[in-house]
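[Discussion] Sanity-checking designs against the backbone

I'm trying to build intuition for which residues belong where. Below is a C-alpha cell string of 301 positions. I'd appreciate it if someone posts a full sequence so I can compare it with mine line by line.
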C-alpha cells in the first residue's frame, strides 16, 4: 500500500513536470493568447479582412505553400547610432563623436555634421549603443538608435525582420511552408502592392516574369465573350497571352479573394521581440521600395 502512493506521486510529478515544460512554459514565454501592441502602438496582429480571409482558403486549396514559404529568416541585427541634430555646440559634438568613433576624426567637421540624419556608429547591440546616445545627449546633440535585421532573406527584400510566432496568430490554419521553389511570400503585399499585377501573374506567370516556372492558374479566371460593354475587370494582357478577338479574361471571385489575401501579407510590424525600425530610404541596407517588376529571385534552401 505504501508503494502505490509512491507510484501515484511519481506519475503525478512526471506528468505535471512535462505539462509544465511543454505547455505552460512555452505559453508564458510566447504569451500568444491575445494581440499585443507593436512598438508603434498599434494592436498586432489584426485579423485579415473578410475577402483576404476567403483568399487564405483559396491559397490553401491550391497548395501554394508547396512552393512558397511564409517565414523570413534572419542571421543577426545591426544596431546603428544615428545623429539627428548636431546641437548648438558643434565643436563639443565633434569631439564627442570622435571619442566614440576615432575614424570620424579624419573627416572635416563641416562634412561630419552636414547632411543629418546620418549613421555615426555601428554597435554590436543595444547595450553598447546606450552609452553613445548618452554621450551625444550630454553635449546637446540628438541621436537615435536604429535596429535593422540582416541576413540573406532580408537582403532579398523578403521582409524587414524575421518572422516570429506572433505573426501567425490571426491565421488558422497557418501556412508557413517548408520549400522555396518560389520566393517567400510573408511580405509580398508590401513588395508587390498592385492587384492587377497579381491577377495577370496568376493567369499567366510568364506575362509578368520572363521564363517563370510557376504554374498558371487559368481555372481561376473565366473566358467571356465581350458583351455590349467590355468588363471593367478584364485583364490587360500582353498580345501573346491575350484571348482571341471578341473575348476577355475576367477573374473569378476565388482569384479576387486570393489576391486580396496576397496583398494582406506583410512582415514589417516592429515588435518588442523584434524591434526593427525602418531606416530612411537612402540609408544602405534598406529594402528598395516595392516595385512592380520583381527581379527573378534565386530560390534558396
Ligand atoms: C510549382 C511551384 C509553384 C506553385 C505551386 C506556386 N508558385 Fe508562385 N512562384 C513560383 C516560382 C518559381 C516563382 C518565381 C517566378 C515568378 O515570379 O513567376 C513564383 C512567384 C510567385 C509570386 C511572385 C513573388 C515575388 O516576390 O516575385 C507570387 C505572388 C506567387 N508566386 C504566388 C503564388 C500563389 C498565390 C500560388 C498558389 C495559387 C503559387 N504562387 C503557387 C512557383 C510556384
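Best answer:
Here's mine. Compare freely.
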Amino acid at each position: 500500500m505504501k508503494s502505490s502512493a509512491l507510484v501515484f506521486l511519481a506519475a503525478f510529478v512526471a506528468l505535471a513536470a512535462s505539462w509544465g515544460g511543454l505547455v505552460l512554459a512555452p505559453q508564458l514565454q510566447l504569451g500568444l493568447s491575445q494581440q499585443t501592441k507593436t512598438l508603434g502602438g498599434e494592436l498586432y496582429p489584426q485579423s485579415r479582412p473578410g475577402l483576404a480571409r476567403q483568399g487564405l482558403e483559396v491559397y490553401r486549396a491550391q497548395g501554394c505553400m508547396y512552393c512558397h514559404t511564409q517565414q523570413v529568416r534572419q542571421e543577426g541585427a545591426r544596431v546603428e547610432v544615428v545623429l539627428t541634430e548636431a546641437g548648438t555646440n558643434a565643436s563639443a559634438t565633434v569631439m564627442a563623436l570622435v571619442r566614440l568613433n576615432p575614424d570620424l576624426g579624419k573627416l572635416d567637421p563641416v562634412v561630419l555634421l552636414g547632411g543629418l540624419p546620418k549613421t555615426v556608429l555601428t554597435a554590436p547591440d543595444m547595450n553598447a549603443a546606450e552609452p553613445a546616445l548618452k554621450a551625444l545627449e550630454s553635449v546637446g546633440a540628438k541621436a537615435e538608435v536604429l535596429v535593422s535585421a540582416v541576413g540573406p532573406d532580408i537582403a532579398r527584400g523578403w521582409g524587414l525582420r524575421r518572422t516570429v510566432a506572433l505573426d501567425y496568430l490571426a491565421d488558422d490554419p497557418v501556412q508557413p511552408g517548408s520549400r522555396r521553389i518560389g520566393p517567400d511570400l510573408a511580405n509580398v503585399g508590401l513588395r508587390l502592392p498592385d492587384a492587377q499585377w497579381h491577377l495577370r501573374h496568376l493567369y499567366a506567370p510568364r506575362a509578368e516574369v520572363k521564363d517563370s516556372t510557376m504554374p498558371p492558374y487559368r481555372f481561376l479566371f473565366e473566358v467571356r465573350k465581350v458583351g455590349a460593354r467590355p468588363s471593367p475587370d478584364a485583364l490587360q494582357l500582353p498580345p501573346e497571352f491575350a484571348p482571341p478577338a471578341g473575348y476577355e479574361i475576367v477573374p473569378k471571385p476565388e482569384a479576387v479573394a486570393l489576391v486580396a489575401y496576397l496583398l494582406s501579407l506583410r512582415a514589417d510590424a516592429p515588435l518588442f521581440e523584434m524591434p526593427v525600425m525602418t531606416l530612411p530610404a537612402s540609408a544602405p541596407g534598406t529594402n528598395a521600395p516595392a516595385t512592380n517588376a520583381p527581379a527573378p529571385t534565386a530560390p534558396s534552401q
